Amino acid sequence: MDPYTEKIQSLSLISRRKFLLALASVTCLGLSKDSKAAIGLFEPFTFGYVTDAHLAIGQPDSYKMLQESQLFLQDVVKSLNAENVAFTIFGGDNIEGPGRDDSNWQLFIDVVQSLNNPWNFVLGESDISGIAPVDKMRTFGPDWKGKGIESTKSYWSQDPIPGVHIIGLDTSRPNSNTGDFGRAQAEWLKEDLKLHQRRFTIVFSHHPLLPPSPFDSGPPWDDYIVPSGANAREIFGTSKYVRLVVNGHVHVSKVQQENNIWYVSSPSLAVYPCAYKIFRVTPEAITMETYQVSFPALIKKAKNAFISCTLAYKYSSNKPSTFAALAEGSRLDSDVILPLLAGKPAQAIEKKKQSKQKKEKAKKVESKKEKQEETKPEPQPEEKPDAVLKPEAKVETKQAPNVEPKPQAPNSGVSNDK
User: Fold this and answer.
1) How many CA atoms lie within 13 A of 77 on its CB side?
2) Mean pLDDT of 76-89
3) Strand order in the sheet with 261-265
4) The whole model's pTM is what?
């Protein structure tokens, strides 16, 4: 028995029965020996991905919905709890600067602690930018330590479930839209992939390591990428277990593939389309779904602000509204099945018949209708001699769902690799 199998069987989080079921499920797929080795051995799981929440206290809206940021984050936490995800990753720009005495970050912690399952995060430039320099490990290190990550660096890795390895890179630079991937982090990544072989591996970074269009072109778009992103992708290519790389930052929904690795750019929570993603992973494929927050009027407000921003006019001075379509992405960028078998194309999936907003609206309409029927006077039966009147059927009423009260800078910075 190889060391990896021994470790899997010894983990308290998985029984021998589950281990054998997982092995059988992979075998039943009819995959080749090489395919099985490249995928790794794990049970199907689901995880949430939320990026660019830009949580802030008392700051005005711009194209970022900062005043609504707490409401949006609370809404997503509630939705992820309903989905019962195995874990959630927050993809950077989680807050709009730590705030005075780290108040924004403390509010973020307070909100996401309501998640029923484990969560982790990577850093974006907004997390560490402000008037005063931000010490990454002083501000964020204690929360990584609380998750069992013992590191003096702002990049990390862990095994959230048996057979699955996740890596959180730090591409953030203070007061800079441009990302950073330095030599020290590259060496750490190489070593980490060697130490955690035979595990299905997912990598998270705030900035795109494979830039989507138009960010793969010249100014001003290349100000938002990682200049050394190709170095990171080269390292990923040395491991056949890295199969998914996810980023935020550019506020667009886009799926790309390079060397059997799926690269997913995710839209922002605080910027139109105010969305987040849920990934459902099996040894055969990754199913990705994109959801918006539950407030249609606020989404419309965010869209109007988004198509008025500078980048929208740089994308199309004649029709800046097309920038919104880029952010939304096509069906193959938002709701899609991503095969893990080489040579298989991505397949779009149908959207849910009812969006979350429509479901909530339907519930309210139904509840209102039932209440009206309950208050209507019941018709009195005609009195007939010797007639036996049957009792009226009891009308059951549903309670209305509880509604909770609504509670760039110059491209200069320092490297992550100190």
Assistant:
1) 19
2) 97
3) 156-161, 164-168, 200-204, 242-247, 261-265, 254-258
4) 0.80
Q: Name the band, by pLDDT with cuts 50, 70 and 90, for residue 147.
A: very high
Sign of the CA dihedral with 368 first, then 369, 374, and 379 last: positive
Considering the domain 31-348 in this protein, what is its CATH number? 3.60.21.10
Rounded Cα distance between 233 and 203, Å, is: 11
- How far is it, in rounded angstroms, from Cα 295 to Cα 288? 22
Which residue type sits at 252?
V
Question: CA 226, 229, 232, 234: dihedral to nearest 10 degrees?
Answer: 180
Q: Can you tell me the distance from the alpha carbon of 120 to that of 158, in angstroms, rounded to the nearest whole number?
A: 10
Among 206-210, 226-230, 378-382, 385-389, which is the least confidently predicted range?
Answer: 385-389
Burial class (CB within 10 angstroms; exposed 0-12, middle 13-18, buried 19+) of 217: exposed
- How far are the Cα atoms of 122, 155, 238, 395 from residue 209, in angstroms, in the given order? 14, 15, 16, 59
Q: Tell me the per-residue pLDDT of 62-75, one tens digit each, with 9 for 90 and over.
A: 999 999 999 999 99
Cβ 8 vs Cβ 163: under 8 Å: yes
From CA 27, how far away is CA 19, in angstroms rounded?
Answer: 12
pLDDT in tens, 97-134: 998 889 999 999 999 999 999 999 999 999 999 888 89
H-state helical runs in 152-226: 183-195
Residue pair 305/299 in contact (Cβ under 8 Å)? The answer is no
Asked whether the CA dihedral 50, 52, 58, 60 is positive or negative, the reply is negative
Q: For residue 357, give the 3-state DSSP assignment.
A: helix
Please give the Cα distance from 331 to 182 (Å, whole number). 35
pLDDT at 385: 40
CA distance 35 to 26: 10
Domain parsing of the chain, residue ranges: 31-348
Two structure tokens written together for 198: 């035979």
Contact indicator for 263, 252 with CB cutoff of 8 Å: no
For 108-121, the three-class secondary structure string (H helix, E strand, C coil) is HHHHHCCCCCCEEE
Is there a contact between 161 and 13 (Cβ–Cβ < 8 Å)? yes
